[in-house]
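> tool_call: predict_assembly(chains=two)
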Amino acid sequence: MSDAIKAIDGEVEGGSKIAALVKREIGRVLALGSLVVIFIFFTIMRPVFASWENVSGGILMSTTVIGLLAIGTTFVIITGGIDLSIGTATALVAIIVGKTVQSLNLNVWSGILVGLIVGGILGVINGLLITILKLPPFIATLATMKAAQGLALIVSDMKPVLFTTDVKGWDSIAQGNLIPKIPNGVLILFVGAIIAAIVLNKTVIGRYTFAIGSNEAATKLSGVKVNHWLVAIYGIGGLYVGMAAIVLTSRLGSARPDLGLGYELEAIAAVIIGGTSLLGGKGTISGTIIGALIMAVLVNGLRILELQQEWQYVITGAVIVLAVWGDNVRRRSAGEIS
Amino acid sequence: MATTQLLSLTGVSKEFPGVKALNNVHFDLNKGEVHAIVGENGAGKSTLMKILSGIYKKDAGDIVYQGNHVDVSSPHEAQKLGISIIHQELNLMPDLTVAQNIFIGREDRRKGRVFLDNARLNKAAKDLLAELELTLDPKQLVGTLTIAKQQMVEIAKAVSYRGEVIIMDEPTSSLTPTETESLFKIIRTLRAAGKGVVYISHRLEELSSITDRITVLRDGEYVQTLNTPETSISEVISLMVGRKLEQDQRPDVRPLSNEVVLKVEGISDIKLLRDVSFELRKGEILGFAGLMGAGRTELARALIGADPKTSGKVFLSGKEVKIKSPADAVKAGIGYLSEDRKKYGLLLVQNLTFNVILSSIPAFSNKFGFLKTKPAGKIVRDAIKQLSIRTPSENQYVKNLSGGNQQKVVIAKWLTRDCNILIFDEPTRGIDVGAKDEIYKLLTKLAKEGKSIIMISSELPEILRMSDRIAVMCEGKLTGIIDNKDADQNKIMQYATKFRN
């Protein structure tokens, strides 16, 4: 018996490890492949597309806010949940940060801390609505989405909060260059992604994120305090909302109460294109980043081709269909789903 | 009175992968007759009825209905022939009215229009209900009715097809005695109208008051058909259990420890459980026998805090513990292995390692919350070897393993967590015969190593083979605890049906 196991084991290890890796990661490999193909296509059409100015200032910089939101919401989606509130919550956090920084005369670091704390609290509120009131995530976050939208308008008195010029260095949060040629906003996105990937794959909370999404009932019966962890996971989503809000205010030079609605769907689209299943239990941060980049590259490239914005929306819609349909076809042929 | 045969089944067989569910079974039904089918769990009653109502396809055999050979190929076909079935679990839509439920799929429309004619629908329902002497309001929402009333709606729906044969699967399982009596009244009305009723029930004491004949099945085989007035419940039971040619396998005699590790006092829940108390000793396998719906799974779930208890105390080695959630139970060292492994036991889309360490993740992480993957890998490889789990590696997805090996993964999960009390709910359900033996050996080994095991099983040979003592439940109550040496299938069935000499 044990010999038989060894034989089978040997067979697996005898095969090429790279081939096995590609097979296991085929979803992300395909997503990355499409990103490269799209990139090459636009480069051939307009060589200026591939210039570093366009790549860093146009593509990467424009994906920072959606990218950060998408990273946080990847956790939520892997649990089998959804967070619709991240868009308007970004606006609310931005407004609160602006108002606090202004009235208390805070410096950059305190302002960032306020943003993370407020974002985290909003996430925890979602988590409590879902676990204590037992609202379905869609409903709970639809409610907080509307509430955040309203609160952002109320707190700001419907006016943008122009605070960034009062705070020394606020604009360099996103626009400075800690590393030459790479805007800090892009750096934040990638550092945020790496931290998220480590948390998701190497820590207890990451493990429970996958467990809850794979089978919540079985996880609970295994003695895991599912509700506690869910609140924490929505809290992580909120922390990334906080980061996104800070980067957004730094880029815009102000906090606008009307900006943010619709970001949630772009972030969710990035997560889905990146191969994370809405059913839960499966997903990666790198896939989400690739998904966000595919959308940013498309928008940027189509703009450079001078295609009207209306058509950019239509094409984004088509890409979502293609990405998810393609993933379904692949997984069906691999026997992963029926 | 001359009898006219309505339906006859001859030589019906049905095989599922690895299981012969029905083998050459006979059954016939006359006009104006109530004919019961009885047997233990797994005797083949439900399979037979599903063949008759077109849900399953028979592998062999012949069905003659009103003198014609018929092939019941789908539920729709069965309905067209005039065979209606009322399933044990009600299939009603709670948010629709009584009338809408009865005529679902056959809605009355105003001539040439797309709109529904609710008035005509209600009128038709009212006439039907009056005919059956049922006091139900056609316009009432079904969700607001009691279970008994809902049962009546199901019956009205079955009758509305104007079929000749009505199959009732455990119709009284959720009814009170008065409600049962009014159900019987309807059945008698149907019988007087010349319909044939197939009646499946675990409640043997009902049979004498409502049935004309009783057919006994055992292990998928036809045993005998009895005329109700000429038989007795004890005869039915002994036919159901049968006299097995081979001697039942019994466990090796193990010296039973006197150390009580778990004591349960007076557990009740809101629905079914009533005042259940028992003790579990160190190194003991305590079997829980009973018919389907006796409350064994409910007891296990209430015990581990998965469902709320309305009363009851739990003592571990003499000390009372409060168990309000599965997390509390796991902390107390009680592991539960559900009868539905896929739904409640495993993360199918994750690998072996993930599943095995799921309950013990805090032990495999440092104080910053980082996972220690190396020791986890070693533990899992050891478990694979120790339990001989057949898998290419610890990275295999659990959904790719066989049922027996999946069960071993769940066992490994609880052993990794150092649980000393294991509750196995139907440990061999869905596991093929060879692997069953391995699971049995594993349970015995665990008990010898000092683990205490509660084993819920609906298979009496399994109960007798494995248990040191056998607790029997019936309708939410513990009806008896028998030492293995004093137990036999007959005795267990008597406790399980509350029937005593």
